[in-house]
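Our platform keeps sequence and structure together, in a single record for each protein. Such a record has a labelled line for the sequence and another for the backbone structure tokens. The tokens are whole numbers drawn from a learned vocabulary of local backbone shapes. The remainder of this section carries one protein's record, kept here as part of the documentation:
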Amino acid sequence: MRVGVVSDTHMTRMSKALPQALTEEFRKVDLILHLGDWVDMEIYEQLAMLAPVEGIAGNNDGEDIIRRFGERKIIELDGLRIGMVHGHTPYSGKGTDGNALKAFSNEQVDCILFGHSHQPLMRNEKGILLFNPGSPTDKRREKLYSFGLMDIENGQISARHVFYDSKK
């Protein structure tokens, strides 16, 4: 199973359309996971034309997005438990990755996906894959825009970032 991972699209403030690099890759995925700060449900419609979409809301999302997706969840893919949270809520962790870890500290998860910082991150923390895809439309202090891809096979996750220099 191939999964596209994206966060912090900030549509339509930062961009009106999804970047070509993202749409080309997400046409090949089985599922898209959005980790919050959609800002507008239009992004859901654009992503849903590419593959099925699941997500959570972020701190810049309105009540319609919060009601639709919630702010934290665990999904199961191929027997693996994937925690999803935006990362803005202070769970007394250090930094966004610390908040993401704390959000699932009392639950068994194999991977935690989060956003909020717009900073791509991938690391293993006590057997849990922490993965932040960065942002495909608002790179802030980063040199490049980014999103993520995960391959899940035989109970294993292989993740990587896709970096590019134009949000068009």
In short: The radius of gyration is 14 Å. The CA atoms of residues 11 and 39 lie 5 Å apart.
